[in-house]
Write a structure and sequence with these properties.
Length: about 80
Amino acid sequence: MRPYTVYIMASRSRVLYIGVTNDLARRVFEHKRGLVPGFTARYRVNRLVYVEEFDSICDAIAREKQLKDGEGPGRFR
């Protein structure tokens, strides 16, 4: 079973995108190629800068929310 991954992608202008996936290689490929229209394609967010793996999707989503909220001791700096 593949782990659930919380990841952070960045653009050259330091725009950040935080997401969750169970297939990191596929998701990074999609971001780099701009295959999915939206935020990451618009802002050219295509550099993987941070990764955390979890066994539980619930834990991964909770961590994603924690990073997005920017609160608590485990926030991304």
